[in-house]
Task: structure prediction
Amino acid sequence: MTLQPLPQVIDPEHLTQAFRRSGILGDARVADVAVESSRAPILSQITRLHLAYDSDAPASPRSVIFKTGHPDRLSYGWAGGRQEVAFYTQVASVAPARFVPRCFEAHGDEETKIWHLLLEDLTDTHVVAASWPLPPATERSATIVEALARFHAMWWDDSRLGASVGAWADPVATNRYLQYLAEKFAQFTDRLGDNLPRDRCVLYERLLSAAPRLLERDHTRRNLTIVHGDLHVLNSFFPRDGGDDDVRFLDWDSWHIGAGSADLAYMMAVHWYPDRRARLERPLLDRYHATLASHGVDGYDRHSLEDDYRLSVLWHITTPVHQVAYNIPPVIWWNNLERVFLAVDDLGCRDLVS
Result:
């Protein structure tokens, strides 16, 4: 165990009160907290805390994950941490099934932009689906898609969407987003120079021009759900005991209301090369659709999923643009750029803006 300093807002009394509010502590108190490990991924700081209690507390965790943001991320306009706080307060707190780590506290300060989460520690019970940048094995990929479909089905056209959970995009917000996207695209093309071929620039320009028409899909407010928004391999956790009925999804800092196909396109079109997609893309779409249907989603046929998937793949050419704006390392966004354009051409997505 290390002797690293505790996060500033965390001490035994703070944890005691957080666990009491969560209903897992009873009369015991947290007597001691120590940092077991700390790491800093690209957008956050993640600290594993070891806990000791002053008396028996069988229902209380022996370790928790404290997640907060990098101070330097404020300069890039990164609001993902506050968005993840919103996920755990709006979505996870009312979800009837377990697809995410349990959250003991979610706090964000709108004035300072400082946020933090106290999350269930899955270190000893779960493992990532695969080691990045390797994709998951075939059957594990199918398990992820089925778990995702069950989660999507749970929120499919739910009456709480846009009311108490998330927000619908109004015309003002849509125009603001498209202006932002145009600005970031200009910066993106300046940065890449002749590394971005003219035909790709033309596709971006056509997408921006066609965006109001393409966004009508979401404005229907039909066949929509809660989208994870960042479903890469490191955000899917599998039970260490080999079971596949307790898949957990982490890092909900990009969640939003949208077409569920956006998560599938991010998982496959953005992160997989053509050979793997050629083998697995269609069978996994079939599996996703079948799982939706078996969990109560009707009025959404396989053809509609195909249409949504192609549109989602097209929209994901903007993913590298956003990643550059957030100062994500080129080893990530450059490969995403190349893969998603291969998917666009394979699926004929250019026709959507022709």
